[in-house]
Amino acid sequence: NVLLDGLGSRIDIVQTTPDNPDFFGPFVQVGLKGKGSLTVSNGAELSLDGPDANLMVSSDSDAGSIGPPLGTSLLQSTFNILSGGKVTVDGGADFGGVRIGDQDGGDALALISGPGSNLTTKGLDNRVDVGWRGQGELLVENQAAISTLQFEVGRSGTGVATIDGARTRVTVSNDDGRFSGNFFDEAGFVRVGRFAGSDGTLNILNGGVLEIREGQGVNTDTFGPALYIIDSNNVDTFDRGSSLAPDDFKPTFTVN
Q1: Which residues, including other chains, have CB under 8 Å from residue 205's CB and lie 6 or more apart?
Q2: What pTM was estimated for this model as a whole?
């Protein structure tokens, strides 16, 4: 278990050399074959900076790819940002982000709670995934915030994400990065469920806000923010390029 607590307390993991495809970039892994816990609280800060920076939360269960019911594993790994804690993951010019429920058969829980508590991902193709391959649950509550470019719930595994309470906000935008390749000009993107067999659930409760948009003050030339929900009728036909909103459609999604 790791506790990073108190104003001025910080961990910085920095890679300044170019990314080598044979090695990982800067990363934090909470749980692998066992149970892990990481808490950042009371103004403390955790920063990962460098190509392919990733924070992965999951225990790798021996139960196989299905695993136990969500939240019931004795090996559940946990990641907490509490009471003004801050976590930043900056992948620079390479893929980077946060994966909650990273490993096949794993079980992960992330809680971001309290005013000033913040999780931010930055760089090219940055993202937050809940249920990457295993089972992941994310609760954002009590005026906490997340900022990312792509937010995906249930990629290949089972994901549940909840945004709960007034002044609690998840912003999915180009504020801190852009997509690569053919999607370079596109705005923030949210997907619930992706591959066949995945299971994604997104709850927005009690005045919580999910905002999907282009950048503000930077990367303002992007377009087509989108919320896409995968089901059995479209799982094999999804084409992101043809499923975006019109260029002039810039919504804020709020569900009570």
Answers
A1: 162, 163, 164, 165, 256
A2: 0.85
